[in-house]
């Protein structure tokens, strides 16, 4: 099948998404933010430290893979790089320019795109998926999905 003949998917012709800086994708129950060796090197460089120091201070090895560390905040777990403004209403990322692919491709993960139901379930926790924002054409969504870890 050629790209032109690509089978239609439920999200054709596209979806709208706009980050609201709610931080919900970076906090919640404990989880994983996988990163590749190259991404780890880029993060370490951004932080001005060597890779081993980055891994010791900001990462954990789980199930044989490296994940960004978490910081417990009440009953939630924040990504170690999650930042908040003074009144805790807007979230940010202290490594935004070098954040891992897993972060860059949210919300266009395979699990969220399997069905409209999967998208709607994820949208319960992500206002940017419900409130609209920028229209993202389906071809761009497929690129993001295909860059994502298929286990997401």
Automatic annotation (TrEMBL):
Keyword Protein biosynthesis: no
A molecular function GO annotation: methyltransferase activity
Record keywords, A-Z: Cell projection, Cilium, Flagellum, Methyltransferase, Transferase
Example GO biological process: methylation
Record-annotated membrane-spanning stretches: none
Keyword Disulfide bond found: no
Protein name: Flagellin N-methylase
Native species: Mucisphaera calidilacus
């Amino acid at each position: 099948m050629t790209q032109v003949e690509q089978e239609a998917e439920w999200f054709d012709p596209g979806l709208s998404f706009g980050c609201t800086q709610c931080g919900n994708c970076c906090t919640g129950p404990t989880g994983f933010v996988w990163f590749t060796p190259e991404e780890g090197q880029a993060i370490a460089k951004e932080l001005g430290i060597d890779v081993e120091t980055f891994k010791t201070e900001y990462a954990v090895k789980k199930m044989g893979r490296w994940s960004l560390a978490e910081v417990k905040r009440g009953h939630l777990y924040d990504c170690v790089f999650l930042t908040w403004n003074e009144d805790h209403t807007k979230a940010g990322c202290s490594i935004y320019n070098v954040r891992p692919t897993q972060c860059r491709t949210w919300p266009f993960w395979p699990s969220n795109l399997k069905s409209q139901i999967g998208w709607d379930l994820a949208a319960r926790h992500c206002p940017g998926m419900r409130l609209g924002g920028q229209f993202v054409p389906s071809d761009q969504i497929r690129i993001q999905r295909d860059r994502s870890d298929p286990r997401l």
